[in-house]
Design goal:
By secondary structure, this protein is α+β, with helices and mostly antiparallel strands. It has helices at 22-30, 35-41, 81-87, 91-106, 149-156, 166-178, 185-190, 192-199, 220-225, 236-240, 246-256, 296-302, 311-320, 324-327, 369-375, 386-399, 406-422, 424-427, and strands spanning 50-52, 59-64, 67-73, 110-118, 125-132, 135-140, 145-148, 159-164, 265-268, 273-278, 282-287, 330-338, 344-352, 357-360, 365-368, 379-385.
Length: 430
């Protein structure tokens, strides 16, 4: 994509963080300290304009030009250890944009949006806006602050350039990956609607203006379910700083290219199975789903990155393709897996009950169910029998022609079918 020539109008002094005001500087300095140090300083003469609030142990009051501004320190929230450490260091400024984008999608916030604008701090600053009761709050990662939106905009003289919601974030993330263009993320952010309008004229991008994403998932699920598998965007920093995820990454790499042994993974010729050995997880064996399929296109997909972001759809496909004797005890599971020490992502897989096995298309793996739940820190939310799945698809999709995607079916299919039978006339399309 061509570079935007007018972006310089918006982006200047990207990492400038200095105030003419001594009081405002003291506020930013205050949020760099740990809670223990902050609580001590709030009672000392060093920060005379900052005091502890009587309302909450985590709430402070900033006195500026005769007005009281209540605020919280973001690092006191329930965040990853990585974020807590970063927020209490000067590095938070450099990382603020990427962390703002990621946390806007992964935190449990009401109506989260990301605002880009200018303030007395500098040009092109990013904030998370969310609803709390009747008022809107803002999270400023660069300043480690949480404050009432009106107070924040007044205090820092913040002026919005653009505000995007979760659906816009999906489109921005898609642009970056489709064009392999992280360099111009600011442009995508400022001109989201303009870019979308231009691209929507082309057939391959028309889905961006429709309710479904490129994997066939209803975009409204992102707000309804929260951290959907396809909505943990902008999490590169998470992956790089999660040591326990290294082994999962090693397994993923191996299942895409199983011709060479890796540090913890090898092929056991005597038992004719693959094996993983690790001090934390012990020992378990597994098979590759790609070794069990004859279809060349599916086999190639399983051995590549193309297998990702289709777990809900492909789990249904795998379940319906099982041999008849396995179908009797098989389930499609709509669940979630651990992404880091706090975040889960929604994920689907297949379980064969009487064999205690899991079949996971995304990871190209067949393995013991107990080991799978331990290794991926998986949690089952909904289980749908394969025989019921056939009826759900027939009644809801084919006969009633209702607009449900695979994710809806995996998590709510049984309930939807039961309601459909009770209220067929209400739910059926005219």
């Amino acid at each position: 994509m061509e570079k935007f020539n007018n972006i310089s109008v918006f982006i200047q002094n990207e990492h400038f963080e200095n105030f003419d005001s001594k009081e405002l500087n003291s506020l930013i300095q205050f949020t760099c300290y740990s809670k223990k140090v902050r609580d001590f300083y709030s009672k000392s003469f060093l920060f005379q304009n900052i005091t502890k609030s009587n309302d909450s142990d985590k709430k402070y009051i900033f006195l500026y030009e005769g007005k009281k501004y209540p605020f919280y320190v973001f690092s006191d929230y329930d965040l990853q250890a990585f974020d807590k450490k970063l927020l209490e260091s000067p590095k938070r400024i450099k990382n603020s944009f990427s962390r703002t984008l990621k946390l806007a999608g992964s935190m449990n916030l009401v109506n989260p949006r990301v605002s880009i604008g200018n303030s007395i701090v500098g040009i092109f600053r990013s904030l998370i806006i969310f609803q709390e009761g009747k008022n809107e709050q803002v999270i400023d990662y660069a300043k480690n602050l949480v404050m009432d939106k009106n107070d924040y905009y007044e205090l820092f003289k913040f002026q919005e350039i653009n505000v995007v919601d979760k659906f816009d974030l999906y489109n921005i993330y898609y642009f970056i990956n489709e064009f392999n263009d992280e360099e111009h993320i600011y442009e995508y952010f400022i001109f989201t609607k303009e870019i979308l309008k231009e691209l929507s004229w082309k057939e391959e991008f028309k889905f961006l203006t429709k309710p479904y994403d490129s994997a066939g998932i209803n975009k409204h699920n992102y707000s309804f379910l929260g951290n959907d598998h396809d909505f943990l965007f902008f999490q590169k920093d998470d992956i790089y700083h999660q040591k326990y995820a290294d082994l999962i990454q090693e397994l993923d790499n191996f299942t895409k290219n199983p011709t060479h042994d890796l540090r913890h993974i090898s092929y056991n010729k005597e038992k004719n199975v693959y094996q993983l050995k690790n001090r934390k997880f012990g020992y378990f064996t597994f098979d590759l789903l790609s070794d069990m399929v004859n279809d060349v296109e599916i086999k190639n997909q399983l051995l590549s990155d193309s297998r990702y972001r289709k777990c809900h759809k492909n789990s249904c496909m795998i379940a319906r393709g099982l041999q008849e004797d396995n179908k009797k005890s098989a389930y499609v599971v709509g669940g979630k897996c651990k992404g880091n020490e706090l975040d889960y992502y929604y994920h689907s897989w297949v379980e064969v009950d009487d064999k205690n096995l899991v079949i996971d298309y995304n990871h190209n793996i067949i393995m013991n169910r107990d080991k799978y739940y331990c290794f991926f820190e998986a949690v089952a939310i909904s289980k749908t029998k394969v025989e019921d799945l056939e009826e759900i698809i027939k009644v809801l999709i084919i006969e009633a022609q209702l607009d449900f995607d695979p994710m809806d079916i995996n998590y709510f299919g049984t309930e939807l079918l039961r309601d459909m039978k009770k209220n067929a006339k209400i739910l059926r399309k005219k």
